[in-house]
Write a structure and sequence with these properties.
The complex is a heterodimer of chains A (207) and B (244).
Chain A (H helix, E strand, L loop, with lengths): L11 H15 L3 H23 L2 H17 L10 H30 L23 H12 L3 H12 L4 H8 L3 H20 L1 H9 L1
Helix pairs in contact in A: 1-2, 2-3, 2-4, 3-4, 4-7, 6-8, 7-8, 8-9
Chain B lengths: L1 H10 L13 H8 L9 H22 L11 H23 L10 H22 L14 H30 L7 H23 L5 H30 L6
The chains are: A mainly alpha (207), B mainly alpha (244).
Chain lengths: 207, 244
């Protein structure tokens, strides 16, 4: 999880395969959608879980993200890599959800009743699990991540955890590559300080 | 503390790929019902926005006479200034609408930078490199009221170019779910302002560096600000309310 810019190292074959799947999906093939979902849902769920800090909400947002992809599929550009676009849709969906939650809190204080949570009907089968060795460590890591301000958290997630280049992350977040680099650095230092203590963070910055 | 912290930090790698549930029944129902769609052609989107921006300048050029001092101005200067204002239209507009190769979304940071650069360059070129034909070019009286009157005349011309362009951009970008809409809007508005400046260089009879820099160049800045404010608002209006 060090300094990386893996977007260039990531095989172009994956982007080409996903672009071919998107072409079949736009042509109306439901099986192509299932293959895109299988390939990208785990990554997008990991990104959303890191952004909202809550797996149940992230799973809900994952469904909304793919629903928005489905509704917007005519905006796809033939031959393009759909991955950064899907991350952008996920980010926008997450922002909308956070705003909705804020509004819901205001409504609760004015009339005193709990807003009804929308039902989510998930009937699909689970994908094979990534090997999870220490749930408590993940929970501590996510708790530390959740304490970062949203722009720093997003930059750390995109560049340090999901391995996007600064340019790709900037495109997803709608900002400049320079701003992403600064945010990712500051966010990662803050994360290390929370998890390892100030000395380790200072040593890492010095190195 | 440190070993445990290292473990916690390393555990975040698991967020690269987390066990995901399958698609929901609602999602699969929508997918099973889908019709084929044609993928977007960004060049077509660019042409739609360019055409929306060009409507008013083309009508104005057809209806109104060209400025009376046009023949008396140096041809090289007219050509260079025309090329610069045309570039001020095409480059920010292309950055706002066309995605980089292999991408779905335009690069909003690049578009925003091009809008700022176009605004600064065209205002400065107007202020520093305006050429008048002595005795032929119409120079307004050196009073604030005259300056403001003619400034507003040309800026309102720019708004008539920028508003349709921003509306057309909102139409073509509405489904993209893109971040950085204000930057894209700034680029579209600045581009439309530059197109209006190009038309004004052929139509506006008023000369003088202050008028050209601050009224014609000011149209680029005001168009950019208008686009930055309006494009996110217009696209927000087209999005469904609530979840999904």
């Amino acid at each position: 999880m060090g300094e990386r810019g893996q977007a260039g190292e990531r095989p172009d074959a994956e982007a080409a395969a996903l672009a071919a799947l998107m072409a079949r999906y736009c042509a109306g093939e439901a099986q192509a959608f299932r293959e895109i979902y299988s390939a990208l849902a785990p990554r997008i769920l990991g990104y959303l879980a890191g952004l909202v800090g809550d797996k149940a909400t992230a799973e809900d947002l994952l469904q909304l993200t793919f629903m928005k992809l489905h509704q917007s599929r005519a905006a796809y550009v033939k031959g393009a890599n759909p991955v950064p676009w899907l991350y952008t849709i996920a980010y926008r969906t997450c922002l909308d959800e956070l705003r909705r939650r804020k509004r819901a809190r205001v409504r609760l204080s004015s009339d005193g009743s709990l807003p009804r949570e929308p039902e989510v009907d998930i009937t699909g089968s689970a994908e094979p699990a990534a090997p999870v060795t220490d749930e408590a460590a993940i929970a501590r890591g996510m708790a530390a991540l959740a304490t970062l301000p949203e722009p720093l958290r997003q930059a750390v997630l995109l560049t340090k955890i999901h391995g996007h280049s600064s340019a790709e992350a900037a495109s997803i977040a709608g900002t400049t590559a320079g701003a992403i680099k600064v945010r990712a650095h500051r966010g990662y230092v803050a994360l290390r300080r929370k998890l390892l203590g100030p000395t380790a963070a200072a040593e890492w910055v010095a190195s | 503390m440190t070993d445990s912290g290292d473990n916690d930090l390393a555990s975040l790698r698991l967020l690269q790929a987390t066990m995901a549930p399958g698609p929901s029944a609602d999602l699969m129902a929508a997918v099973e019902d889908m019709r084929p769609v044609r993928p977007r052609v960004p060049l077509r989107s660019l042409l739609i926005v360019a055409a929306a921006a060009a409507v008013f300048p083309v009508v104005a050029m057809a209806l109104y006479p060209l400025r009376r001092d046009l023949g008396a101005l140096p041809k090289l200067w007219v050509g260079a200034v025309g090329a610069l204002w045309l570039a001020g239209f095409l480059i920010p507009l292309a950055f706002a609408i066309l995605p980089p190769a292999g991408q779905v979304l335009p690069n909003s940071a690049r578009a925003g930078r091009s809008a700022v650069l176009a605004g600064i360059t065209l205002v400065l070129v107007g202020l520093l490199f305006t050429v008048d034909a002595p005795g032929v070019t119409l120079l307004p009286p050196a009073t604030w009221s005259a300056f403001v009157h003619f400034w507003w005349h040309c800026v309102s011309f720019s708004l008539k170019v920028s508003i349709p362009a921003v509306v057309a951009a909102a139409f073509v970008l509405r489904r993209l779910k893109i971040a950085g809409l204000a930057r894209l809007g700034a680029a579209v508005g600045a581009a439309a302002g530059a197109l209006s400046g190009l038309a004004l260089h052929g139509l506006c009879p008023i000369g003088g560096a202050a008028h050209v820099g601050l009224a014609h160049g000011g149209g680029v800045v005001i168009g950019g600000l208008l686009g930055a404010l309006w494009l996110p608002l217009l696209i927000g209006l087209t999005q469904p309310r609530g979840r999904g």
